[in-house]
Structure formats: structure tokens, C-alpha cells
Design a protein that fits this description.
The chain starts with 11 loop residues before the first helix and ends with a helix. 42% of the residues lie in helices and 11% in strands. With 426 residues, the protein is α/β, with parallel strands linked by helices. The structure holds pyridoxal-5'-phosphate. Pyridoxal-5'-phosphate is lined by residues 45, 103-105, 126, 175, 179, 207, 209, 235, 237, 243, 248. Residues 45, 103-105, 126, 175, 179, 207, 209, 235, 237, 243, 248 line the site of pyridoxal-5'-phosphate.
């Protein structure tokens, strides 16, 4: 039978959807691997670490829990998550203001669906916010950020964007530590942004999925400075290494309870509730214990050392890169090398061209900055320094100093990939 391809079979909003450059890079990497090439996967954003033992044990014990759970989430989990938010932010929060979903991505999509607003997005931003808005027919206003500010959204730029949309509600998605840049905000930055948010009555979705992966363990939430208008989004995917378990969490301000209720209606008509065993295991994760604290601290030590190593090497090779503060990513800018690279390959007009060329020449996969909202002709790219065996590295780091020698032994692809990039440009 012929595949169905005629456009009239598809709704107008999906007719123009194209596979992202990310997907194309992944397919290209796979094709090269099938030809026997070694690929260094700096394009992947998954935690390299295994789920902490005590959380795995809870999941095993919870396998017998087979009933549907309440749409807003298991009450015990909502309580554990509220206490987690209290521990992290010092804020008093009510378990009734907590919502559990099948990954924070789904919850963000439902929030965008429920909130009548223009979406304000700093450029660069994580790949999915804008396509979600496009699927919903939601207007998007990109706000420029600059490398010299470590790609941080500036209060004055936020103010300007708000003044352009005085007649409509505004939803700002602020993600920190940031994917793709690896940078984050200081208390002073957050206070300045909160002041603008208050003045313009913004709803802020603080995507803090990498909060616990702040390399110094000093993550701050904008909810501490703008509690009345900030929803905190997090989950198990990054700090707990459980992306495939699909559990995300939102903490709402009390005055936005109606939004939570509406999102629960959307949930009841779509995913119903998150898988029961996963929710029981998540109680252990959010309650925390010595095993989990040690796991998080050791993960951070490895990530921080890897981030600083790669950053130092890139800077030494003349590739400007903002200093990493958290998460798994760096955002090097290869634009200064454009002319030199064009001598080798005249077609390097865009970041997607650059990533394709780098992959073919060196086997190192990066993701183009254009997928994160950057101008196509700027040669920025996201580099994810987590292509290593996290279980082995974590075990070794428990009794070893994590330094360059450690990285060479336990994260060899991170070192090799970095070297390949540096020699490629120079
Ligand atoms: C910035 C950011 N937000 C949200 C997500 C979605 O996480 P999940 O749906 O697994 O909770 C990701 C995952 O890569 C991310 O990088």
C-alpha cells in the first residue's frame, strides 16, 4: 500500500512541521556509525548517571501498584515534592499547589495550551518551547541575549519586550541552569528580572530541571523573588538520571490554583495520571536520603570538572564559550573561524552546515545554535559533555579526586572530542 502523504490528510498546524536539525544530525550520526565510524555524541542531552539505588529499589517494590492514581498526582508524592521545594527555596508551599505529569515537557505543553498569552522566549532557548507554541498557534516573541552577558536575559530587554505586548497576557519561560548555554542567574539578576515581571504581571515558568545540577550546588529560584507569579518546573530526568521514567513536576503559586485545576482537566482528558510505580519511586527521590545526596554531590563534581576542562580547551583554541555554571552543556561560538573554515568548505553559511561538516570531518556531533532560536548564520552550537559511562565514573569518583587525569581515564570521549574540535578549527 502507498504511504499517506497528501497534505489534506493533515491539520494545517502540522502540515509545515519539519524534522529539526537535531534529528537530522542524530540520523546522520547513526548512518556514519553504521559505516564503522566512531561518533562522539556531544549532541545528546541525557544524564549519563544511573538512577540512585534507593530510588530503583522503590520502583521495584512499587511494581505491584497497579491502580490509576489521582490526576494531580499521588498525594504522598505531592507532599514529598512540596517539602523538596521548601528545602530548596525556603518557601512555604502547599502540597495542593503541586502537579505531577509524565515529564515536565508535557506539563509545559499543557500550560502553553491553557494560558492565553504571548510566549516570551530568550534566544537561545531549549528546542521544544517554540515548536509547542507553534502546534498551539500561540504567538512567540524572541528576546535577544548576548554572549558578553553569558547569554543571560537582561531586565532591560525583558522590559522592552513587555512594552510591545501591553494588551495581552505574557508567559515568560526562563530556564536556568540553561540548556543550551550552561550558564545561570545570580540573585541580583533574578531580583532585576522579578521587578520587571511584577510591573507587567508576567506569568513565569521557571524551568529548573537542571537546578540540582548547578555545579556548586547554589541554585536559586526566581520564585524566591516573585512568588506570586512563578511556576517552578522540575522532575526526575536530570538530577536523578531518570529521563525515561517520564515524571515531571510543577509547583504553582497559590493564586494560580485555577490554572492547576484546568491543567488537571487537560490531564484527565489526555494522559490520566503518571504510571503508579514511577510515582511511588519518586516519593523516595524527592524525600531524599544520604545515598541520594552523595549521588548528587558526586555527579556535580564530575560535571563541573568536565565542563571546566572542555571550556578551558575551547577558550585556549580561540573558540569563545561562556563559562559553565550548571547542567550538561556549553555553547561555543565558531563564528570567528568562519573565514578560515570557508577555505575548506565554501558552503558553511549556517550553524547547521557547520555541524554537518564537523560531524563528517571529525565524527563529533554538536547541535546547531539555530535549533535553539539563534540566527541561522551565527555559527554557535550546543556541546553536551556527557558522552561517558556515568555508572563507572560515579563509582570511581566516590574514592578518587576528579581532575584532568580522572577525565582522561573515565571520560575519554569527552577529552578526545574536545581535542578533535580544537584541531579541526585551528
Ligand atoms: C531545558 C529542559 N526543559 C525540559 C526538559 C524536559 O524534561 P522532561 O520532560 O524529561 O521532564 C528538558 C529535557 O531535555 C530540558 O532540557
Amino acid at each position: 500500500m502507498q504511504p499517506i502523504t497528501e497534505l489534506h490528510h493533515f491539520t494545517p498546524r502540522v502540515q509545515n512541521l519539519k524534522p529539526s536539525a537535531t534529528l537530522r544530525i542524530n540520523e546522520h550520526s547513526q548512518a556514519l556509525e553504521e559505516q564503522g565510524r566512531e561518533i562522539i555524541r556531544f549532541g545528546f542531552g541525557q544524564s549519563p548517571f544511573p538512577v540512585p539505588q534507593s530510588v530503583v529499589k522503590s520502583l521495584q517494590e512499587g511494581a505491584v501498584k497497579k491502580a490509576y492514581l489521582p490526576v494531580k498526582g499521588l498525594p504522598e508524592l505531592r507532599r514529598a515534592f512540596a517539602k523538596y521545594i521548601q528545602r530548596k527555596t525556603g518557601m512555604e508551599v502547599d502540597p495542593e499547589d503541586m502537579l505531577i505529569g509524565p515529564g515536565s515537557k508535557e506539563l509545559i505543553f499543557h500550560l502553553q495550551m491553557a494560558h492565553e498569552s504571548v510566549l516570551l522566549l530568550p534566544s537561545p532557548s531549549w528546542v521544544s518551547y517554540e515548536p509547542q507554541a507553534a502546534l498551539l498557534g500561540k504567538p512567540v516573541h524572541w528576546i535577544e541575549t548576548r554572549a558578553e552577558n553569558q547569554w543571560r536575559l537582561q531586565a532591560a530587554e525583558l522590559e522592552k519586550a513587555c512594552l510591545k505586548h501591553t494588551d495581552i497576557n505574557k508567559l515568560l519561560i526562563l530556564n536556568y541552569p540553561n540548556n543550551p548555554t550552561g550558564t545561570t542567574y545570580s540573585a541580583a539578576d533574578l531580583v532585576a528580572l522579578a521587578e520587571v515581571a511584577k510591573r507587567h504581571n508576567l506569568l513565569i515558568l521557571a524551568d529548573e530541571i537542571y537546578g540540582d545540577m548547578h555545579h556548586e550546588g547554589r541554585h536559586l529560584s526566581i520564585a524566591q523573588y516573585y512568588p506570586e507569579g512563578t511556576i517552578i518546573s522540575t522532575g526526575l530526568s536530570k538530577w536523578c538520571g531518570a529521563g525515561g521514567w517520564r515524571l515531571g513536576t510543577f509547583a504553582f503559586p497559590p493564586r494560580w490554583r485555577k490554572m492547576l485545576d484546568i491543567m488537571a482537566v487537560i490531564a484527565s482528558e489526555s494522559f490520566t495520571s503518571v504510571s503508579s510505580p514511577i510515582q511511588y519511586a519518586a516519593v523516595t527521590a524527592f524525600e531524599g536520603n544520604d545515598d541520594i545526596s552523595e549521588y548528587v554531590k558526586t555527579s556535580r563534581r564530575i560535571l563541573k570538572t568536565a565542563a571546566r576542562y572542555v571550556h578551558r580547551k575551547l577558550e585556549e583554541a580561540g573558540i569563545p564559550t561562556a563559562e559553565p555554571e550548571g547542567g550538561f552543556y556549553l555553547f561555543p561560538d565558531f563564528t570567528p573561524w568562519r573565514n578560515q573554515l570557508n577555505g575548506q568548505a565554501p558552503q558553511l553559511a549556517t550553524s547547521a552546515d557547520f555541524c554537518r561538516f564537523l560531524l563528517e570531518k571529525t565524527g563529533v556531533a554538536l547541535l546547531p545554535g539555530s535549533d535553539f532560536g539563534r540566527p541561522k548564520d551565527e555559527l554557535t552550537a550546543r556541546l553536551s559533555y556527557v558522552d561517558f559511562d556515568g555508572e563507572r565514573a560515579l563509582e570511581a569518583a566516590r574514592h578518587l579526586e576528579v581532575n584532568d587525569a580522572f577525565l582522561e581515564k573515565y571520560c575519554p570521549k569527552v577529552c578526545r572530542g574536545t581535542e578533535l574540535i580544537c584541531t579541526f578549527v585551528s
